[in-house]
């Protein structure tokens, strides 16, 4: 393969028939392979193949000029508030907070049977519609563009649940990402990251003390 | 019976094919991979199911370590220099062209603007050592982080902001960064995560 055969006429030509001398040039590729291997190793160690994934979020503007009329009001019955505390537990309540009854604040986990099951149940209609849409896309009945368009229409449709995510200072970044992740898995179109309010802290403390806190507060 | 003659075989192996393969592999790695950026702190990003890939150009990435230190990096060197000059102007620090030249080649920066001059005078090894302990102040009355973002946005309007934070970072730090961004009306940004498959567990 790496041999080159040259037909050398042997320099001086003698009278009569010329004698042809065959010289084979054999190129040794071993050093070349060595060098290439070295370069490959270098590239494998110093570069990353995968580009990092990202999650795009839109935060609400905290512009003071926006009046209450411009803000989209959330129907209390459709809203679910998640309170992220540290560790693996997450608390949630639906609708308006109930300061009297500590049982209104429920505790769950980030696992599939915890928060995801709860959200999927709430969003059952949209989830099944999107699943049907996905099947259509897999069967090549609709294009990707149509899929994204229709999916967002379903997600942002009326009567879909709205989730408000509030994290305490004890929560970690992972908790926040996990919660945002669940929004994507459960096809929830409208969700908001909000700062925790005094009322939410009260709810958490009330739950911790099993209602004793609210009794003290009402006695005052 | 006569002895079987064992033919002498040459032990030479033809390396041409091997060379072909290695060159092919090399080309593949050179074309598909991107160099790892040197980061002052080790950060483990949390996993998410999001499969959206980050674009390569016009990225301003904000690196947040578990202790809450904030660092920044930009992919365009010209933008970096312009941003530094304008941030310096806002804080009453001016830089010489030699200092700007040194700043250009920094991979990640995150030094209070007052100590930037001293930082740029150091050697690369010293910088690496010191940078871990520094970081851009995000506290309320000295929010230089805001200045950086504001000026970076002014130099390059197409800039995309990407936040890369460790999974154990307390939410308090993230909240500070997010509110700073909100104050500047930067309402759209990316959170860098690593890939995770949707599991039923």
Coarse structural class of chain B = alpha/beta
Taken as a percent bin, the fraction of beta residues of chain A is: 15-25%
Q: H/E order of the elements of chain B?
A: HEEEEEHHHHHEHE
Most extensive interface? A-B, 52 and 61 residues
Largest sheet of chain A: 5 strands, mixed
How would you describe the oligomerization state of the chains in this entry? Answer: heterodimer
> Residue-averaged pLDDT of chain B, rounded?
81
Q: What is the overall number of helices of chain B?
A: 7
Strand order of the largest sheet of chain A: 7-6-5-8-9
Integer average pLDDT of chain A = 75
List how many beta strands of chain A DSSP finds: 9
The CATH class of the domain at 76-123 and 161-219 in chain A turns out to be Alpha Beta
Helicity level of chain B, as a percent range? 25-40%
Residue ranges of chain A: pLDDT <50 for 5 or more in a row?
Answer: 10-14
Estimated radius of gyration of chain A: 34 Å
Strand content of chain B: 15-25%
Radius of gyration of chain B: 25 Å
Task: Estimate the global geometry of chain A from the Cα principal axes.
Answer: elongated
Query: Roughly what percent helix of chain A?
Result: 25-40%
């Amino acid at each position: 393969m790496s041999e080159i055969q040259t037909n050398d006429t042997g320099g001086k030509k003698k009278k009569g028939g010329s004698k042809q001398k065959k010289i084979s040039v054999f190129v040794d590729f071993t050093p070349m392979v060595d060098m290439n291997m070295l370069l490959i190793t270098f590239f494998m160690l110093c570069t990353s193949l995968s580009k990092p994934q990202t999650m795009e979020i839109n935060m609400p503007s905290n512009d003071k000029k926006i009046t209450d009329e411009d803000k989209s009001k959330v129907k209390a019955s459709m809203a679910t508030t998640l309170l992220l505390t540290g560790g693996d537990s997450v608390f949630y309540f639906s609708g308006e907070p109930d300061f009297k009854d500590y049982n209104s604040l429920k505790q769950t986990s980030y696992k599939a049977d915890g928060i995801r099951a709860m959200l999927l149940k709430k969003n059952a209609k949209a989830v099944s519609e999107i699943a049907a849409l996905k099947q259509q896309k897999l069967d090549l009945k609709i294009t990707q563009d149509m899929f994204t368009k229709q999916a967002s229409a379903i997600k942002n449709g009326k009567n879909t649940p709205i989730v408000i995510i509030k994290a305490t200072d004890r929560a970690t970044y992972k908790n926040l990402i996990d919660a945002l992740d669940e929004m994507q898995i459960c096809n929830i179109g409208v969700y908001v990251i909000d700062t925790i309010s005094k009322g939410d802290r009260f709810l958490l403390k009330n739950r911790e003390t099993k209602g004793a806190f609210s009794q003290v507060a009402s006695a005052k | 019976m006569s002895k079987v003659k064992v033919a002498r075989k040459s032990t030479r192996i033809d390396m041409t094919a091997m060379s072909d393969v290695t060159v092919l592999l090399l080309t593949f790695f050179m074309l598909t991979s991107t160099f790892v950026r040197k980061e002052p702190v080790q950060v483990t990003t949390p996993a998410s199911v999001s499969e959206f890939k980050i674009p390569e150009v016009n990225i301003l990435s904000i690196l947040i370590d578990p202790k809450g230190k904030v660092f920044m990096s930009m992919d365009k060197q010209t933008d970096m220099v312009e941003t530094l000059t304008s941030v310096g102007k806002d804080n009453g620090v001016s830089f010489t062209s030699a200092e700007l030249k040194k700043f250009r080649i920094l991979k990640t920066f995150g030094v209070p603007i007052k100590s930037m001059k001293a930082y740029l005078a150091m050697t690369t090894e010293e910088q690496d050592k010191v940078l871990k302990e520094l970081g851009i102040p995000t506290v309320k009355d000295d929010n230089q982080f805001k200045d950086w973002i504001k000026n970076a946005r002014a130099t390059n309007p197409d800039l995309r902001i990407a936040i890369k934070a460790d999974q154990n970072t307390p939410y308090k730090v993230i909240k500070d960064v997010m509110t700073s961004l909100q104050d500047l009306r930067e309402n759209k940004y990316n959170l860098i995560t690593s890939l995770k498959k949707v599991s039923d567990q």
